[in-house]
Amino acid sequence: MRLLRTEQQLRLFQKISRFMVKEMSLQEVLQGIVSLVVEFTECDSCLVYLRDGEELVLCASNTPHPSTIGKVRLKMSEGLTGWVARERRLLAISREAYKDSRFKSFGDLPEDSFDAFLSAPVIARNRVVGVINVQHRQPHQHTGGEMEVLTTVGEQVGCVLTLARMSAEALETSNHVELVLASGPIQPPR
């Protein structure tokens, strides 16, 4: 069973990696990643918030929130999502997440009443640039594997965001060898 789950994790990371090399809009990539996370975690909701100054903005969702994409905003000091961004830490709540003192209700989102909550920061170049949330309607004990997967997906989304800032032309004309050599002597990983 563990081997099967490890193979599923590997396939998830491979599929996300392929999104990173395709020419797709950032919105398409984020929606694709959300769909893969939903399939892997069997969650009821997956939301990606990206940082805009001192706010987090809902940018992708598996549930039909067309009117809320780009409009739902949280301050970095608000909610469980803001806490994850501020603290740069994973957060897992297996039941009654809506009773947590850090929880912020939006009133118009069905996720406000979901029981289980798993959230990881989206990291790019060692900076928090967003948060990815996974929620279950019913209580759900998050496994170490699920937590590790969401953390890694958050890191991959951060890489996607960094790559999205590069134009195809800049990528084509970049001297990658010069970039590596200019950064200093190559040190073996520790």
3D structure, described in words:
The protein is an alpha+beta fold and 190 residues long. It has a six-stranded antiparallel sheet with strand order 3-2-1-6-5-4, with helices on both faces. Helix 1 runs parallel beside helix 4 and helix 2 packs antiparallel against helix 4.
Strand content: 15-25%
Structural class: alpha+beta
Rg over alpha carbons: 17 Å
Number of strands: 6
Low-confidence stretches: none
Task: Estimate the helix proportion, in percent.
Answer: 40-55%
CATH superfamily: GAF domain
Instruction: Give the C-level CATH assignment.
Output: Alpha Beta
User: What is the H/E string?
Assistant: HHEEEHEEEHHH
Structure annotation, total helices = 6
Biggest sheet, spatial arrangement of strands: 3-2-1-6-5-4
CATH architecture: 2-Layer Sandwich
- The 3D shape can be described as globular
The pLDDT mean sits at 87
CATH domain topology: Beta-Lactamase
What is the end-to-end distance? 32 Å
Biggest sheet character: 6 strands, antiparallel
Number of domains: 1
Please render the helix and strand layout as text.
Blueprint: H1 2-21, H2 26-41, E1 45-52, E2 55-61, E3 73-75, H3 79-87, E4 91-93, E5 116-124, E6 127-136, H4 144-164, H5 168-173, H6 176-182
Antiparallel strand pairs: 1-2, 1-6, 2-3, 4-5, 5-6
